[in-house]
Please model this.
Amino acid sequence: MIPARHAVQRPLGARLLVVDRHGTIAHVARSRLVDFLEPGDLVVANDAGTLPASLHGEHLPSRAPIEVRLAGRSSFAREDLRFAAVVFGAGDWRSRTEDRPPPPPLAPGDRLAFGPLVAAVDGAQGHPRLIVLKFEGRPDAVWAGIAQHGRPIQYAHVSERLAMWDVWTAIAGPPVAFEPPSAGFVLDWQTVDRLHRRGVGFATITHAAGISSTGDDELDLRLPFDEPYRIPAVTAKAIARTRAIGGRVVAIGTTVVRALEHAAARDGRVHAGDGVADERIGPDSQLRVVDVILSGTHEPGTSHYQLLKAFVADAVLARMDREMEIGGYRTHEFGDSIWVERRYADARWRSSSFVSRESSSPTSVSAAAVDR
Model:
């Protein structure tokens, strides 16, 4: 596949690889997305806004240049100023992440300066590039400093310097994601309106999407890191209603799958409230909630690709890879998309269990009405 090099969220000619529940593959224009939804379905998207999570500065003990990429928090609390962070030495996004030099040796208590901000190393995480960082100062001043001095995390495949508007989805709300929940780039408010007119529900969650690469193979095996999420009561109710009438729950992105499946782990029902997704979804995972995932294209070996194995068999994934390679699909956050329906062990499909689908009033939850 070919990396998407330009920061265009909804490019003309974007494609959608569709894999139905039988493993049949089709190629369509991504603009036809709504055609694959049915009355009674529910689309769930991540409304997290993206933080300027790349901070360039100085390791004060050595005066060496450093880049910190904020990569995780334990909660959404504004007062929580402790972050997991991936650290690099000199350089910037123009170099491939895997080619970046390591940071200077870091020890607990070392202070780092980023423009107006100062933070201290608050602990190690078993790898030279992964630390816990705690910012000094009042929360309001720290968040203002991150907004002023930080930039979006960026990788070398994008040819131009990213601006904040490049990494915010059309439905973005609270700025809590470290990289954009980029599957949501397919959405705009015209698409949401088309969903409503088709009788398809729309709801949101908030999930702190983490980083996609650390530049180190060993460290990448830990991805995704633990990520906090919030599920509004209105969204949990919409999911329950959709399941009751046999509609499908369609997740826009891997972050939505992670949050919903974690929230349903106790008894199969999605519970409203805050949580921290700490599981890795893969071939041995039993999906309880999500029937379809709409996502970007992912390369084998990544955590996103492993998650797809919970939906379809390895043989289907291999065929998908071949089809996208032959078709020249664009990968990464500004690339093309895939629609993957979950396989079922038996021949039954959810629609066979609800006879009132056409007559039922559609579940419709406006993102603007979601409690945050």
Summary: The chain has two domains: 2-50+162-369, 54-149.
